[in-house]
Design a protein that fits this description.
14 strands; 6 helices; alpha+beta; single chain; 4-stranded antiparallel sheet; 5-stranded mixed β-barrel; binds zinc ion; OB fold (Dihydrolipoamide Acetyltransferase, E2P)
C-alpha cells in the first residue's frame, strides 16, 4: 500500500470494524459492525429516562449485518475525483448541446412561442386581470404583469424576444433569464405618448423656454447688401410641453456645439403663429440659445 489516510488508521483501532481485503487499486474494504443508532456507544445519556441502553443493539454497540466501507489511497481518490470531474464536464457539454438542439422546445417550456416571442400586457392590468386570465395570460412576477405566448388582439402588449431576455448559461448548463431590469425594458418599448403642439404666448411677448433643439437647416440667399450671399438658418425647437418653436435667422444663431437632441434654454419674442404640415408652430425672433 502506497499511503494511508487518517480514516484508515482509525479503522484499524476500531473494534467494530474488520478488515476484509485490498483490491488492485489499493482500496481497502472493511466491514463496519457499528450500530447505526448509538454509533457504537451501546447507549446514550439522552435516552436516560427510557433506559440508557440502545434498544437497537442491546448495549453491545454492534450490529449483525455489517456495512461495507471502502478506504481509498489518496492517489486513487485523486484519480476517482478527476474521473468524476471529467464526467461532470462531459455532462455539462452534453446539456448545453441538448439545450441548443432543442431550443424551441425549451423556449416553449418557458412560455415563449415557436418564434421565441412573448407578449407582456401593459397599462392598467389590475382592473382587467380576470379578462387577462380568461384569455390565457399567465402572471409573471418577473415582469410584474400578465404574459401571452401569442399576441392577443384585444389587449395592449409589448413584445419581448427570447434573445433579449434569456440566455444559455453554458457554465451551469441551463437556460436563465438575463440579469437585466425587465420593468425598464418593457417601459422602453411602450409607444411614446402622442405629442400635440399648441401655440405659445402672444405676439410681441418675450418668453423663456426649456426646450430641445429638434432640427435645423440652412440655405443661401442673395445678400441684402447685393454682394455675395447670406446664410439663412431655420431652427426647430420643441419645448417641454411638446410645442414647436421656430426661429428663422440670418447666420448661425445657435452655437455649433449644441447638437440636435440637446436640451437648451431658449429666450425669444413671439413673432407669429402659423401652421406647417398640420402642426401648430410658434415663430420666434431675437432669440438667444444656451445649453441647459
Ligand atoms: Zn446501538
Amino acid at each position: 500500500m502506497k499511503s494511508m489516510d487518517l480514516a484508515q488508521i482509525y479503522a484499524r483501532n476500531d473494534k467494530n470494524r474488520v478488515y476484509l481485503r485490498t483490491d488492485k487499486n489499493g482500496t481497502e474494504i472493511w466491514a463496519d459492525y457499528t450500530c447505526p443508532r448509538c454509533g457504537g456507544a451501546g447507549g446514550a445519556d439522552a435516552w436516560t429516562y427510557t433506559g440508557w441502553t440502545c434498544y437497537s443493539c442491546g448495549g453491545t454497540g454492534r450490529r449483525d449485518k455489517p456495512q461495507l466501507i471502502k478506504y481509498y489511497t489518496p492517489e486513487y481518490r485523486a484519480k476517482l475525483d478527476d474521473r468524476a470531474r471529467k464526467r461532470a464536464e462531459k455532462k455539462r457539454l452534453e446539456r448545453v448541446e441538448e439545450l441548443k438542439a432543442n431550443l424551441t422546445e425549451h423556449m416553449k417550456e418557458k412560455g415563449f412561442n415557436e418564434s421565441g416571442k412573448i407578449y407582456v400586457a401593459v397599462g392598467n392590468t389590475y382592473d382587467i386581470k380576470d379578462q387577462l386570465r380568461e384569455a390565457g395570460a399567465k402572471w409573471k412576477p418577473r415582469f410584474r404583469s400578465w404574459v401571452f405566448a401569442e399576441k392577443p388582439e384585444e389587449f395592449d402588449t409589448v413584445e419581448l424576444s427570447f434573445d433579449e431576455i434569456c440566455e444559455i448559461n453554458e457554465m451551469a448548463g441551463r437556460i436563465e433569464y438575463k440579469d437585466i431590469d425587465f420593468i425598464s425594458l418593457i417601459a422602453s418599448k411602450l409607444p411614446a405618448p402622442e405629442v400635440v403642439s399648441e401655440y405659445v404666448g402672444e405676439k410681441g411677448k418675450r418668453l423663456e423656454f426649456k426646450a430641445t433643439l429638434e432640427d435645423w437647416r440652412s440655405w443661401e440667399v442673395p445678400s441684402y447688401s447685393g454682394w455675395g450671399t447670406d446664410t439663412k438658418v431655420l431652427y426647430k425647437f420643441r419645448d417641454d410641453s411638446g410645442n414647436i418653436l421656430i426661429w428663422c435667422t440670418t447666420g448661425y444663431g445657435v452655437d455649433s456645439k449644441i447638437k440636435k437632441g440637446d436640451k437648451i434654454i431658449l429666450r425669444g419674442t413671439v413673432k407669429n403663429h402659423s401652421e406647417y404640415k398640420g402642426e401648430k408652430q410658434t415663430e420666434l425672433q431675437r432669440c438667444t440659445v444656451k445649453v441647459a
